[in-house]
Amino acid sequence: MEEVLPELKEFIAGYCERYKIQKVDPEALTVDTSIDLDLDIFDIEIDLFLAEFADTFRIDNSKFTWYKYGYPKGSVGVEVMKTVFGYRYTWVKKVANKLYKPKFKVQNLQEAMKTGRLV
To answer: What is the phi-psi region of residue 86: left when phi exceeds 0, alpha when psi lies from -120 to 50, beta otherwise?
Structure first.
């Protein structure tokens, strides 16, 4: 499995801490970590996250569109599950993936860092 670039790990953890989204352990991030489901960054927050990502790493996001991924808007059912059971249990993650299909992953950001374009 491909490793996440250290600077990307630090950016994501720092962003989540700075905007008080949630505490993120940089070492726990993988390329399969979902930005919208696992990190709870969706709706307008994901647009702000991508804008800061593009500015920080000098990524061309002029051709980026949500049509390819579907706009991440979150799920009330998943939020209730996370509140009641937490998100550290494997079964909660499996059920959450059934209720809400993740739209955008760390892999997409890492690919953008390699190519210089977010598409």
So the answer is: left
Q: How far apart are CA 71 and CA 87, in angstroms?
A: 22
For the chain (length 119 residues), average pLDDT per consecutive 10?
Answer: 89 92 89 91 92 95 89 88 89 89 91 93
Asked if residues 69 and 104 have their Cβ atoms less than 8 Å apart, the reply is yes
Neighbours of 5 (CB within 10 A): 16
107 with 12: CB under 8 angstroms? no
Task: For 60, list phi and psi in degrees, rounded to 5.
Answer: -80, 110
> Model's pTM, two decimal places?
0.88
